[in-house]
Every structure is written in C-alpha cells, then in structure tokens.
C-alpha cells in the first residue's frame, strides 16, 4: 500500500552481436533541471517519508534500504537463477493481471480517463502477451551457445557462451502507459533471472497505488519489490549501485539517470521519445493516411512516445489530406464533441495542459481545426495547425498531446529537416512507391519505421524495439528484452594434452617460438580490392599434387610401397 514497500520468431539473436521561445516555459524548464540536479546531489540524511500535494506517501529511505538489501541477498543465494522460480513468477504475474484487470481499468480511468477500448488491448492484453512469450521461449533463451568452430581452440577447448542474469535491476515506469511500460521490462528481467526493484510513475497516482498493492500480493517479495518515489526520493535511490537500470520517460530526466548510473558504471536502457514525423507523399492513399494518422493522434490524447508529432505533406495533396483529417476527427468524436470529457483520454495534469496551451499560443501557424479545451477536467480536443514553418514553437519539442502540425514539404525537404533534428523514435512514411520507402530507410535514422500506418512496428513479435540517439538506447521486446538483462559469459576449458602445442607462448622468447605463434595472414584481395584467385589453400593443394607427381616420376612412390611404409 502507499507509503510502504511491497513484499516473430523467438530465436535468440547471436551474441556477436531546442525549447520554445516563451520565457515562462524556459523558466519552468530551468527550475525542473535545477530540481533534478539537487535531487541527484542530495544526501541520504535529507531523505525521509514524504507526502505529495495529494497526500500520497512515498517509501522511506529505511524501506528502500531494506528492500535493496533483501533482493540483493536473494540474488546472491542464487534464488532468481532457478528456471522454475522464473517461470512460476511469470505465471503468478499472469494471474496478477487477470485478477485485477477491472481494477487496472478503473485506475487508468481515474488517472487519465482512459476508455476500456484503449485499456484492454494495450495494457491488459499487452502484459499477458509479454508473459506468454517469455514463458514460451525461456528454455530456449537460457541454453548455452557454442560459438563457431573454425578456430581449433574453440573446438578443442569447448568454448561456450553462458547466459547469466546481470543482477539487481531497477525499472522506472512512465505515466502514459503505467502498467505496460513498467511490467513489460519487469517480465523480461524476471525471465533473465534478475532480482528486481520497480518504481511506478508517481504522476499516475491511482495506478501507482494499485501496483504497490498487487505486486507484493502475487510475486516473491524476496526478489521482487515495488517502491513509490518522487523526484527527491529518486535522488537517494540513484545513489545506490544497481546492475542494470531501465528507464522509460523523457530525455531530460534520462540524462540525470545516466549521469547517476555512470558513477557506478551501471548499464542503462533508455526508452525515450522524440519528435516522430509522418511523411505523406503524393502517391499515398491520402484518405487512408489521414484516417490512420488521425486515429493515432486521437489515441491516449496523443500522449504516446511513438505518436506522430508532425506531418510533412506534399503541397499538391495538402488540402485533400487536411480535409480528410478533419472529417475523421469529426467521426472519431462521434459527432458529439461535448462527449470528449466523458469518453476520451484526458491530459495527465495541469502542468502538461498549460504546456500545450502555451505552444498553441506561440505558434505562427494557422489553427484550422480545434474544439473544447477545459483545464478543469483536462480534456483537450484534437487540434490541426497548418502553414507551419521550420522553427515554429510546435516543432521546438516533443508535443506529447493531441496537437497536429502540418508542414508543406516534398520528400527531399522532409528528409533534410528530419536529419537536422534529433533522431526520432519512429518515422511513418505514406507512399505507394517503393522508391520513396527506400529513400526514407536509406537517408534517415530512427528507432523504427512503419509504412502506410503508424506504430505497428512496435507490435512485430520477436523484433527489437527501442530508440537511437536522443530517442533512447538499448532494445527490448521478445528475446531482446531477455538479452538486455543478461550477461553473456564466455568460458573455455582446453585439455591438458594441448600443452605441447601451446608451449611456444612461454618465455624465454625465441625466433623459433615466434614462428610457431605467428603465421602472417594473407589477404584474399589486392590493394585495389580485387579478389585474389590463388589463395594459399590452393597453393598447398598444388604443392601436394606437384610433390606427388615428382615422387612418382623418381620412383619414390614404388620404393615406399615396397618397403611397407605406404599402402597401395
């Protein structure tokens, strides 16, 4: 409960494996960054049980210290390495979701006003799918692997790659999908054999309270703990050493988490966001593109890291595209925009509502479609803004809301602008022409790409998901989540009879030993990069043939046979 700590193919991949110009907003951002700087430099004695404005209690320093000591001791005993234990925890997690899915829906409705149609597929079903995938492939993923046998030492020494859990994993969730974005990585960490401390978002308070209650009720509290913490408490938590940190959220906070992790050389996975663009080419199915982009922007009130941030539309089809956008927004609102506050997701809090309002006030674009925006109930209607210029306030940061800027641009311009910005988490290209798709793939870089739809690449079973550059580092989903929490440990055991073969490595060093240890490699290509047809292997064969021929001509062959040294 609040204030206490709660007790595709699945084949594993091989192991070689700027701000708005508004001064008030700048001041707000500066205060946020300063607050986090203080957090990360705070001392333990400053940390105690804290209450937020809504009277929600956070875990105390003593609670956290106890939790960390407990899970660390459990991991040291090897408890989490047992595959039966891992499977049992994943099975229990299934029933945790199944038994509490109605309560999850109520918590999501309280925090975000989420509709059942968004909750069940993306939170409940998403968690269930992650659990089943891990259970289905766990035996396969945990098997030792043998590297290639072309090296005699690999073969004779039995070179093996062993899958070891990294240790204690800290997983920090996000408020926009409070269950999936916390529990999904937790399932991966459990499958990998890690002990886990999870920290739900303190912004989605109802969901946090529920997670604080149900995780200790269903999962083994010796190795899996759930803590509640705000920014101040996280400063204390991040002073401690973990073996892996998995964070989902903003790039600004990620930089401080990474800085804290660097003090312990702790590896981190960062699932961030970015200004993900859509590109609508003249050859696209314009009506379908508008429908799918509108639906994506509508979902969760645009509060999705993968959402379309802005759209580049070829000027020749812009009018048609915007008309279809407005048409579908009308349809999605059911012709009754007054129902928006009742049935559709709200903005998470007043701070984010005010941020979106400021961005709209500062834009030089033309608002062609809008509706009611009510700070009291945090409802925010889908909003279309056209005639956007590069440098506009709406392009100054990730929007994370239901505002959709439209930019007139051909494919060349779109690619140029995309490459001038931080790498986004996703790019969405709409075109019927393969050459357009090929250009987008070849000339840009992003976490992922979906063509003629939005966000679908995240659902590709067994495929990696993650960002690049400012949109994140590391990958998860399927086997990649397992690998993210796994240390690939190589071991080898050469037989003792190989000692004579390996004796040249010992001092004193001599030219004879050097000849045995060092055989100059021959390049199978010349200085111009052309393939060399006669390699040393063929020369050896040729030499053998020549030697045999010489022996036959000189009578050596018959002599060896007659003496019994060689059989016919």
TrEMBL record:
This protein's name? Beta-apo-4'-carotenal oxygenase
UniProt enzyme class:
oxidoreductase
Query: What species is given as this protein's source?
Result: Aspergillus caelatus
Q: Which InterPro entries match?
A: Ald_DH/histidinol_DH, Ald_DH_C, Ald_DH_CS_CYS, Ald_DH_N, Aldehyde_DH_dom, Aldehyde_DH_NAD(P)
In which domain of life is the source organism classified?
Answer: Eukaryota
Which residue range or ranges hold the Aldehyde dehydrogenase domain?
Answer: 55-490
**What family does this chain come from, according to its entry?**
Belongs to the aldehyde dehydrogenase family.
Q: Which GO terms describe its molecular function?
A: aldehyde dehydrogenase (NAD+) activity
EC nos: 1.2.1.82
| Disulfide bond listed as a keyword | no
Transmembrane regions listed in the UniProt entry? 537-561
């Amino acid at each position: 409960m609040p204030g206490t700590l709660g007790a595709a193919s699945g084949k594993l991949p091989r192991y070689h494996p700027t701000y708005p110009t508004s001064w008030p907003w700048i001041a707000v951002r500066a205060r946020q960054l300063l607050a986090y700087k203080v957090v990360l430099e705070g001392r333990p004695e400053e940390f105690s049980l804290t209450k937020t404005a809504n009277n929600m209690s956070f875990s105390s320093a003593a609670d956290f210290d106890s939790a960390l000591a407990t899970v660390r001791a459990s991991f040291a005993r090897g408890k989490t390495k047992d595959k039966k234990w891992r499977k049992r925890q994943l099975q229990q997690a299934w029933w945790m979701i199944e038994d509490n899915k109605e309560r999850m829906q109520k918590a999501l409705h309280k925090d975000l006003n989420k509709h059942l149609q968004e909750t069940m597929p993306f939170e409940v079903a998403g968690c269930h799918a992650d659990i089943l995938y891990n259970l289905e492939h766990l035996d396969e993923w945990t098997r030792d692997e043998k590297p290639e046998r072309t090296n005699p030492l690999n073969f004779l020494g039995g070179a093996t790659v062993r899958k070891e859990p990294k240790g204690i994993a800290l997983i920090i969730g996000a408020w926009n999908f409070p269950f999936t974005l916390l529990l999904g990585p937790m399932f991966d960490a459990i499958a990998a054999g890690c002990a886990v401390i999870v920290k739900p978002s303190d912004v989605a308070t109802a969901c946090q309270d529920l997670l604080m209650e149900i995780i200790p009720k269903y999962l083994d509290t010796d190795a899996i703990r759930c803590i509640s913490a705000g920014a101040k408490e996280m400063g204390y938590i991040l002073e401690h050493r973990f073996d892996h940190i998995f964070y989902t959220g903003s790039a600004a906070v990620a930089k401080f988490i990474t800085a804290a992790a660097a003090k312990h050389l702790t590896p981190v996975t960062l699932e961030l966001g970015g200004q993900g663009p859509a590109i609508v080419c003249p050859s696209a199915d314009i009506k379908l593109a508008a429908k799918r982009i509108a639906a994506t922007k509508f979902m969760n009130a645009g509060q999705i890291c993968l959402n379309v941030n802005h759209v580049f539309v070829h000027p020749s089809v812009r009018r048609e595209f915007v008309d279809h956008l407005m048409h579908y927004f009308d349809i999605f609102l059911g012709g009754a925009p007054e129902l928006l506050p009742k049935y559709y997701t709200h903005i998470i809090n007043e701070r984010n509502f005010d941020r979106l309002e400021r961005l709209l006030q500062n834009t030089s674009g033309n608002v062609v479609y809008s509706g009611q925006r009510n700070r009291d109930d945090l409802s925010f209607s889908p909003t279309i803004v056209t005639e956007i210029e590069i440098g506009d306030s709406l392009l100054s940061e990730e929007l994370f809301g239901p505002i959709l800027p439209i930019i007139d641009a051909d494919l060349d311009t779109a690619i140029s602008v995309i490459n001038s910005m931080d790498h986004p988490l996703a790019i969405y290209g709409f075109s019927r022409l393969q050459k357009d798709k090929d250009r987008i793939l070849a000339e840009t870089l992003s976490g992922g790409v979906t063509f003629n739809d939005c966000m679908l690449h995240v659902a590709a079973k067994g495929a990696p998901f993650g960002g690049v550059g400012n949109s994140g580092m590391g990958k998860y989903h399927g086997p990649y989540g397992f690998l993210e929490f796994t240390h690939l440990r190589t071991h080898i055991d050469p037989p003792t009879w190989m000692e004579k073969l390996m004796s040249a490595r010992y001092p004193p060093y001599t030219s004879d030993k050097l000849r045995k240890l060092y055989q100059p490699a021959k390049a199978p290509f010349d200085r111009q990069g052309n393939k060399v047809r006669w390699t040393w292997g063929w020369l050896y064969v040729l030499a053998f043939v020549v030697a045999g021929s010489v022996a036959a001509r000189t009578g050596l062959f018959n002599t060896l046979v007659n003496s019994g040294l060689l059989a016919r």
